[in-house]
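Q: My collaborator sent me two sequences in one message, no labels, and asked for predicted structures for both. Can we handle them in order? The first one she listed is below.
A: Yes, handling them in the order given. First sequence, followed by its structure tokens:
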Amino acid sequence: FKGGDTCEYLLSSGRFLGEKVWQPHSCMMHKYKNSEAKNCLIDKHVVFIGDSRIRQLFYSFIKLINPQVKEEGIKHGNIPFEDKSASIKVDFLWYPEVNGSMRQRIKSWTEGFVAKPHIIVVGAATWSIKIHNGSNEALAQYKINITSIAPLLEKLAISSDVYWVLQDPVYEDMLSESRKMITNEKIDAYNEAAVRILNSSSRNSKAKVKVFSVSKLIAQETIMKSADGLHLPESSRDTNAMILMNVYCNKIMKPIDGSCCQPQPPLTLIQKIAFCFFTLSIFGYLIISLIHRNNYRKNKSCTDLESGEEKKPAISTPNVSTLEMLLHCFCKLGLIMTYFYLCDRANLFMKENKFYTHSSFFIPIVYILVLGVFYTENTKETKVLNREQTDEWKGWMQLVILIYHISGASTFLPVYMHIRVLVAAYLFQTGYGHFSYFWIKGDFGVYRVCQVLFRLNFLVVVLCIVMDRPYQFYYFVPLVTVWFMIIYATLAVWPQIVQKKANGNCLWHFGLLLKLICLLTCIYFLSYSQGTFEKIFSFWPLSKCFELNGNVYEWWFRWKLDRYVVFHGMLFAFIYLALQKHQMISEGKGDPLFSNRVSNVLLFISIVSFLTYSIWASSCKNKTECNELHPSVSVVQILAFILIRNIPGYVRSVYSSFFAWFGKISLELFICQYHIWLAADTKGILVLIPGYPMFNVLVSTFIFVCVAHEISQITNDLAQIVVPKDNSTLLKRLLCIAGFFSGLHFFSAMQDQSRH
């Protein structure tokens, strides 16, 4: 199903999500703020021509520019509006009937010496029905008058946006006696006449007068709430005004969450190069596969006629197999990236806005929790936060975050605050995992660092190229990458203190604690010194990575939101490993972590702490205030969960293989959702199968999970090739990678220059 002409869909079809949220068919509608409306309409002249219904639309439209406007104009007269700060003029012209007077006014704009309005919104019919008591003669005259006006509107539509607003249905039971002749049957007859004449008079598709018929659909759902049965309730006319704003402004402002009426973005130079690279990889892989297949046939075991001995087939050289594996990975990746581009950059598939309801979030949560419990298995080891358990933890958190994103639950503050804890828990695991590795292994080699950085960043770098998005757009990966480098620098800088060294002398433990205190001090200083933080990350080349929309504020906000949790993870790892070393905890199968009495007390405190945090998060009234407290208190629920999960021996000895499977591809799931599960860079929902929301989610989810799993395998395979263990080979690869990023920067600079 193609996205097609989304402007036509926006003007003609859609449905209500809930009571007040209008969802156009196939595309997303942006909710314009006053500042955005002014920027779009700067130096523009907009004219509304018609009766009292058009006057309602006029007022809703100008309230998008200035919400303080009051409906105090003359009821049966012209009403001017001007915003001098943006040089915007919006006029309402009182022409309640389609007659000679309206024709004369429209004709005046077609004459060369008169300035034409940039937007013209016309509509009238109910007065003709009322004055002439719904007579057939009035309808015939209406057809004649529209026929004479249509060529003029078409001429204006060559240089201006012209909209003909069809008449909304009425609620006949509520109409006053003087309006009883205005029936829905009459209104339908007038609308049919207008549509037939306007469409038939259109010679040039580019100059077509746009028929604004969507208001009929909106009115059908809401006219019962009308005060007089004729005029729409305020929420409905506000929706119509917002649709008008989207039709005109989306192609100018290009909002991410406004896909209606937006043209497909042109391919950038870097995207074209990426397309050529992936195409060559696909052809290269096919050629090598054919060559290998022919060689295999030739070198099949056969009997030597002279000696009577069987010949062994020739063995392929490692270089050839490595090249084939490399091309195979890029071939698959090229096909996957094509799907990414088609889903979220080409106007091929439909996109829709999110709409939150409690059931759309909590029912899937209950469903996956039941599935997770069903797939319970025994762990291979029973240590605290063992591999299976951390994979399980990542898995269920990632699934909850995915449901949170697709359901639009960020609008519900209690859910938002709990999801913030899940994101913090990921970073807590980053601090715990990397600290544990460096502390126990003492491996600070370049190979380890490059492996981690490659696995974290490979997919994001490819998406930055293919989807034309900055690195900071995928904020979680930069966040994890920077924290990994901070952990590495903290432990690798002189003196390097590891477990083996600390076991020989207890004073080294104090040295490590001193390092952690220094780290905490730096974090505290940077979190309250935005200027210093922004200066550090505004230096080239860091600015190329961390700028979003021309500044690093978004990066500072993301970093500050969970600034202490990685430190908490490192500190927890240090305390846990120290307790483990001194045999102060019991990690046997089925054994409680501490003595029964201590375990029971800690378990009770943990449950109370967990519930206390949830009660506090659920009572949040202000997102800004709660975000300020979050960095300091999120660790409470994280630690409470760890203790509840690990103190009872039985609970520690089992895990959910269902959640653990998703945990192994959690990073890929988090990143891929941006473009092939959600849409418009996470602002909307991808629609592969319109009209069947549940079936659409099932199909898109299946493809999305398969793609994430495949990308995880591709990343692992490429990591072995691109980041070898041999230091001299690794150095050569690093030089190649440096050359690649230099070229990327060069082409990016060329792109920026051509855009300016």
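Q: And the one she listed second?
A: Here it is, processed independently of the first:
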Amino acid sequence: MAHTLLLLFVICGLTSTVGPTVEPDEMLLQPAGEGQLSLDPSEVAAAAVDFGGVARAEPLAVMRPGGAGDVARLVRAAYRSARWFPVSARGHGHSTNGQALASGGVVVQMSRGRIAPRPMPAYSPSTGEYYVDVWGGDLWVDVLNWTLANGGLAPKSWTDYLYLSVGGTLSNAGVSGQAFHHGPQISNVYELDVVTGKGELTTCSEEQNSELFHGVLGGLGQFGIITRARIALETAPHRVRWIRVLYSDFAAFTRDQELLVSLHGAHRSERFDYVEGFVIVDEGLINNWRSSFFSPKNPVKMSSVHANAGLLYCLEMTKNYDDSAADSIDEVVEALLGQLGYMPASVFTTDLPYVDFLDRVHKAEMRLRAKGLWAVPHPWLNLFVPASRIADFDRGVFRGILGNKSSGPILIYPMNRHKWDDRSSVVTPHEDTFYLVAFLRSALPDSGDPTQSLEHLSRQNKKILEFCDDAGIEIKQYLPDHRSRAEWARHFGPKWGRFLRRKAQFDPKCMLATGQGILPPPSIL
């Protein structure tokens, strides 16, 4: 308790001497500004876990900032304190490996902190593009609704799930099916305001404080807390033609995927706007994953498409269009599909508003919540796999380790490396084309099926990593989870030295985002 009270007094800029006359109601204090600091047991408990449900670390307090100044005051007080304690930013709590946890410290609840109204989208004569400034804790779904309502605009690059915070995805990369053309979300940011680990509120961009700008993008929260981001916008289309085609031949599947992403520079009528894919290991996934696609009254049976040994690959694409182009969209899509070698009679299409497509995963979330299947452990494994080894990965993992159980969606789609800025903190394979392979599994401990348990899925993840290591497949983890400094050094590879230099410059006391265990505090280095 004495440590807790000392912590709160330090944060509030009060004396660090805590006497015996402190009353219980003084334990809920407010820092200067509009922010609130809370020791409420329910808030502390909620901040002790994340979406992954595997890591757990209880903070001493949760802060709800009223603005960037509150975040800066908190971190500055922690930096100047003689007693070390960690600070982590939390958006929507959707991290999976402890990035937002702060054992014995303070979690900054960014997604509930914004009070001021959002600025209007604006036009930049220097870039010829529209942009919008948003709070780091804003959810992407709210950014979308705001920009659509104010100019019919939308961000260019997305994640599949919109209920994530801006600062959260920019701290990782932010990828979806638009990344082959626009690059990840971190490639579509003009400017940031960042609170460094010294408590300095700094504006940064490619031209101003560029080392901090590139370090924070994909930096796993290690160099600062993003409080504002200037996001690139484009005119939003009205509707989307959503297409799925099936393959039993993995070579044909990846050949067509790589063809489609190679068309990133083509005229918009000569390319798709979104390219993803997934592996179907059992019949349930073809109908239930992103289940807003197929009608429950008309499910697709794997037997009807002659699956090879129960394994199929689904190529998923969209073509955006406006109401004025409705009469020609069929012709455009047919021409694009004519280049592909999918299984005959396996084309499935649907049309829907652009917003509904972007928000498609949220509908599935609501169904899972209603069944009590959302708040379960999620031992996700996300990998970047070099295109030259993706066939080996298929043989060893999809047709080997997995068996006939997946316990959740398995995404697989290629991206173009030149759309990623190598100055950022993200690490990718050193090939022009690499794949995201994402095992988005849910553990169901009460299902009675041992293959659905957290222990089984965690062991399977370990087997997949060991297979890649033994086979010499130089993967990189996206949303990485490593357990030692040596593993983190291997993860960053040639970027490790730069990572350490940036850490020493921007967070020398190693206070930020400690939940991942990348570096210990200086006293025990």
